[in-house]
Amino acid sequence: MFSKSISKSAVDIFVRKGRQLLPPASHITSHQLPQQTGPYTSFSTSPASGKPSGKPPTWDRVGAPLIWPNEGPGVNYKFNWQLNADGVTPTRERAFRIMKPLDITVAGLTKTAESVVESERAAAKVSVPAEAGTDAMPFDDFDASIRDTRDALSECPAIYSPEGLAPGLDIGVRVITNSGALASACAAYLDRAPRANTMKLRSQPITVYAYLGGGDGAPGDYAAFAVEEHEDGDGTAVATVGVASAEGPEVEALRVVIAAIDVCVKGLETEGGEAE
Q1: 74 contacts: CB under 8 Å, gap ≥ 6
Q2: CB 3.0–4.6 Å: which of 15, 151, 218, 229 could bond 22 by disulfide?
């Protein structure tokens, strides 16, 4: 043991490795430090690159940084939750709410001329879908088809949801579809809702689920609607429309959607449905 104290300023620390005498620690550069061998990993820096020559294996278990919130075009958390309430959960993170012409551009779609919609509206009178609860579409079949359509929409790379008012009326309509062309046409068909309506994120009196295309997970072809009492049991009525077509063009789907909305409006008026 040392018999007397020594001030820190007067101490030179020497490091010995075998018989090699290294300079004071204050003058040691990183590449002069002795390297450990055996099961240990060196973390000294290379004098040439200045980068670590090794890293602990735990570093590889660190995931990529998560940025939150991460909203942008097609990613709106509040609207995604509303779609979830309607039975569709966007798993691919792209769901575009379309309420005005600018929304069509943001979604990367092409605006549909109103003249095209008017001509198809006239042809839609002969495209009325089946009503749930009839021989053509029993309730069990309707419920199963709607469920399959919601599941298929949830897995789509992009979901488009034009939203507005039934033409000439104050009844809200939301269309949920995977077809950009159909979404653009429906946006042209529906009346633009006032800002007070568009700020409300809630289910609409009429909800249309339209899936176009085939492949794995696609629902079978059908077109049907149902006007029923709201699940809250408050006495109001809501309408649900389901459309699926593996090969049918968007124009035929548009006729069915228009016809379904028109017949649902009449059903809601008969049942005393809620006006939005």
Answers
A1: 93, 94, 95, 96, 107, 158
A2: 15
pLDDT per residue as tens digits for the range 187-229: 999 999 887 666 666 789 999 999 999 888 889 999 999 998 8
**Residue 236: burial class (beta carbons within 10 Å; 0-12, 13-18, 19+):** middle
Alpha-carbon distance of 114 to 118, in angstroms, equals 6
Rg value, the chain, Cα: 33
How far apart are the C-alpha atoms of 15 and 47, rounded to whole Å?
20
Q: What is the pLDDT of residues 126-166, one digit of tens each?
A: 678 999 999 999 999 999 999 999 999 999 999 999 999 99
Assess contact for 176 and 210: CB atoms under 8 A. yes
DSSP codes joined into one string, 240-252: EEEEEESS--HHH
Q: Alpha-carbon torsion 106, 265, 113, 191, what sign?
A: negative
Residue 274 in tokens: 């809620």
Distance, CA of 53 to CA of 46 (rounded, Å): 6
Calpha distance 235→230 (Å, rounded): 7
pTM beyond 0.85, yes or no: no
Distance CA 276, CA 274 (A): 6
